[in-house]
């Protein structure tokens, strides 16, 4: 949602540090890469993104705060 709001900007990031990067849906891959590159997404842990998990209210608030700081 934030990626589209930002106008779908270019900016790929290497997701190989995350063991579950292969679980990111193809339609969301560019958005996830952009969010990781810009620090909006930092992962559930240092080595997992948990792309199929639900986000808590606190996690959403943190992502919105990081996005607003761009």
From TrEMBL:
Record-annotated SLH domain positions: 15-70
Alphabetic keyword roster: Repeat
Cross-referenced InterPro entries: SLH_dom
Superkingdom to which the source organism belongs: Bacteria
Protein name: SLH domain-containing protein
Gene source species: Butyricicoccus faecihominis
């Amino acid at each position: 949602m934030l990626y589209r709001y930002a106008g779908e900007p270019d900016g790929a990031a290497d997701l190989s540090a995350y063991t579950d990067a292969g679980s990111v849906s193809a339609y969301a891959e560019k958005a996830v890469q952009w969010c990781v590159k810009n620090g909006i997404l930092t992962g559930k842990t240092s080595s997992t993104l948990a792309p199929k998990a639900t986000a808590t209210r606190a996690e959403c608030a943190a992502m919105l705060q990081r996005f607003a700081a761009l």
